[in-house]
Amino acid sequence: MPHSTNVSTPTRTITSPDEKLVDADINTPARFLQDRGITLETLPFWLVNVPRSQWTTECPAFLRDQPPKNVQCLATPDSHYQRQSWEEVQEITRTNRIDRFQRVPSELRKYLEYMSQIKAEYGSVMRFVVTERLCWGDGSAENLRPRGGLFEFSEDIRILYNDWPYGIDTDIIHLVVWTKFELPDDPATGDLTAEAREAIERYVRETFCSLAPEQVVWFRNWKSLKSVHAIEHFHVMLHRPDMAFVQDITHGDVPLIERV
């Protein structure tokens, strides 16, 4: 069911954040909305999937000026969201339609809020990723200088969970391979060069050789879709892998979405 995606929805139709909710309100959400002039169709997108006790009269700063795709996703109740299957994941990566990936609506909201907090505390997402997730020093050029070329030394590579995975089936594991070395683009196409693509293919085959080829896909986000631009990385998705293998290859990593 569609919800309002207009950030200028009149605040008079929304409960005050200081208003106390009584038990009757909690048990009868339809009457709660009706009494305040709010319908499920006109509920502002920033209130969807949010407990009434946390409603605000205005759109939170971290949700303002979002692209239409994000607003549409945020306006969708989690109960209406359909996770993408492994077959869909394979088709998306095969056709390079990476823009079709999206997050579960409530998880997208958490992601956007957390990214806003990270930028405020660390100055940039890159600095947070380098210092707290990759543990590659303080993010200086010296710390990020690769020892060798493409996939030559393991110390130039780190495999972690995607902290905020796409809204895919829960039996699909979403990993990110971070590298200190660059994966060169073809200036004519903006895509990976043939050499870089071949190097990634070889690395993925060798690293995930314990899985059948049909259990593994990889892709690199278009530049316009990257949330972290300054550190090279690409994505790997595994279908129903041995979780002991995943724990080993990520060195026991736990994604942020499970910790915040």
TrEMBL record:
<dbReference type="InterPro" id="IPR022036">
    <property type="entry name" value="DUF3605"/>
</dbReference>
<dbReference type="GO" id="GO:0006044">
    <property type="term" value="P:N-acetylglucosamine metabolic process"/>
</dbReference>
<dbReference type="Pfam" id="PF12239">
    <property type="entry name" value="DUF3605"/>
</dbReference>
<protein>
    <recommendedName>
        <fullName>N-acetylglucosamine-induced protein 1</fullName>
    </recommendedName>
</protein>
<dbReference type="GO" id="GO:0005737">
    <property type="term" value="C:cytoplasm"/>
</dbReference>
